[in-house]
Structures are given as C-alpha cells and as structure tokens.
Specification:
The protein is an all-alpha fold and about 170 residues long. The chain contains 5 helices and no strands. It is about 80% helix and about 0% strand. α1 packs antiparallel against α2, α1 runs antiparallel to α3 and α4 runs antiparallel to α5. The protein starts with a helix and ends in a 7-residue tail after the last helix. The protein binds fe (ii) ion (FE2) (2 copies). One fe (ii) ion binds next to α1 and α2.
Amino acid sequence: MKESVQQAIGDQIREEFYSAYFYLAAAGYFESVSLTGFADWMRQQGREEITHALKFFDFLLDRGSRGVLQAIAQPPHEFTSPLDVFSQALEHERLVTARINDLYALTVREQDYPAQVLLQWFITEQVEEEKTTGQLVEELRMIGDNSSALLLLNNTAAARRTATPTPQKE
Ligand SMILES: [Fe+2]
Ligand SMILES: [Fe+2]
C-alpha cells in the first residue's frame, strides 16, 4: 500500500473514533437533561462510529499495514439545547463526508482500487448519516420551545433510529 493512503486511512481511523467520542459526549448531555431517548440515539450512533473505525483498521491490517493509532481529540461537552447538539452533529457529519470524499480522490490518484471499494461503502453511509441527522435538525427547528412535542420526539427518536436500515456492514 502507498504510504500516503496508509497515512490518510490512519487519519480517518482517528476521525471515526473522534466521532464516537462526540456522540458519547452528546449522550452524556442528554442523560443530564433527562432526555434519555435522544441519549440512546447518540449512544447507538457512537457505537456505529466505532464499527467504522474498525472497518478502516481491519482494512489496513488485511493489507499488511500496521495501522498506527493516533491521539483522539477531546469532544465538546458544553451544549445549549437539543437543537444545538443535533446541529453540531450535522455539521460534524458534513465534515466527515468531505474527508471521505478527499480520501476517495486520493485513492483514485494513487490507483488504490481495493481502498476505493471500501470507501464506496462509506460514501453511501455518509448520505444516510446526513439524511437522518438533518431530518432531526429540521424536526427540532419545527418544535421550537414546545416541550410536549420535544418529549414526543425524544420518545420516538431512538426506536426510529434502530429501525433505520444501514448499508450492508461487511
Ligand atoms: Fe463514521
Ligand atoms: Fe457518522
């Protein structure tokens, strides 16, 4: 494997773990304000991010690379409202999408075909991530400061997320 691709995948492993950290921090916030449905949503999301990191890690190992693990940055821990959390999540997912796209472009330049196949899964996954998070941002905007509507969304969000099919894992 080309050094540049190994390095870029190493960077992405760090970003996927950061994503997991971010969602876990968000889960902590929601628990602290007794919105346990949203907390569960964030926890599920965090777990999924760990599977993303492992997909890249296993890919490196399968291709004979050591996969040097990098330091993970501290996630935010101050949130002002559910809308603030989901807006930050959406912004973060958009950033991840841009990173995945850049990574794909690199593998095209470097003619790394197996990495392109792996990244196609992530490209599809990012469409789903932005869609589900964006949907919740919109719904929270509509809710405004209506607390009964907020509680209703809190109660249904986690179950709705579990029911959402994600692209094939392996
Ligand atoms: Fe991810
Ligand atoms: Fe994600």
